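Design review, sub-item: ligand-bound model
Attendees: FS, YL, KQ
YL presented the inputs for the alpha-D-galactopyranose complex:
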Amino acid sequence: MRIIRGLVATVLFTPLFLTAQNTKTAAAPPMGWNSWNYFAGKVDDKAVRDAADALVSTGMRDAGYIYVNIDDTWEGERDAQGVLHTNNKFPDMKALADYVHSKGLKIGIYSSPGPKTCAGFAGSYNHEDQDAQSYAGWGIDYLKYDLCSYIPDVMEKQAPGDYEKQMALMHSAYAKMQQAIAKTGRPIVYSLCQYGWDAVWEWGPKVGANLWRTTGDISPDYDRMSVIGFAQAGLSKFAAPGHWNDPDMLEVGNGKMTLDENQTHMTLWAMLAAPLLAGNDLSHMQPDILKILENKEIIAIDQDPLGVQGDRVYAEGPIEIWTKQLKDGGKAVAIFNRGDVRSNEYPVTLHFKDIGLSGPVNARDIWGEKDLGKITDGYKLKPVTHGVILLKISK
Ligand code: GLA
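KQ shared the predicted structure:
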């Protein structure tokens, strides 16, 4: 709970909005797992327990993946008092939360400000306080709040054709749930999901959001993942400890992405200081996928305590170079090859002035797992198609 004490010096005739600068929650981008990308509507109590067990047995928990987030389709019916119950896939949410907590993990849940969620289950419309109290009672630590039916059922009905008013309704819906959460007194990470609408990065912090989706849904293929990831250019100024841009959950290990494509995905998300929410089936994961998700040097870039999101500094044909300032004075430099000719190495010359470096500098090739020693201006490398070379630069 945030308690604010003090005197208001003058009588206010306009409403006073206190912005909750909730920076202690999600001081670094949240890390964990979310059920949607792999299990979608098939998620149940067992799948969540299995994910929690796998986070521990694979070492992912100790690498930082601590949130176990249940997405849509857990919701049952409301009783006569309006209290929402789980459906029969989740016989006892409190017991499940206790189990997840007993593993040294945290648990997340999902709802919508509309009457229905995106999958057609009960949303929190007109039940915000009640639902927030239920979450707190169960021991929930994270809420993803997805716009869904709030668009047709509330925004378009209450303000037909009036875009400004529709946006105001949307903002107030998100603020309302934030207030409901605050009233419970439980620290709950608050994650907005409204697909980046209305430049959410500009007003997300004002409604108490710790993170906000910046795009529509990801899917497990290079084309969609890269369209979403590279479209984040320019958003770095809106991220800070406690407030993160969210380009959607990871698809590492899902679909048919190659090793290079999975490395590109993980690198781009780390450069973006994005939430790292694995979306694969953790209990049946190939070793090369675990190696990518668990790479401590990549995770350290994502979670760097300076809390600065990286951004694109250079583009040339299929090549994009992104840099991210790190707290130790170093820099992460990612050289991506977005070309669509398979297995084609593309020659790149690093011009230090283009990427904010003055040399010589010490470099480490993170995916190559080797120190390159001192490199100088004009250094040449060859990222493969759909691949990336990620350098950690230190003076
Ligand atoms: C929307 C969200 C997804 C997921 C589904 C669940 O599409 O963007 O991430 O939560 O709803 O129905």
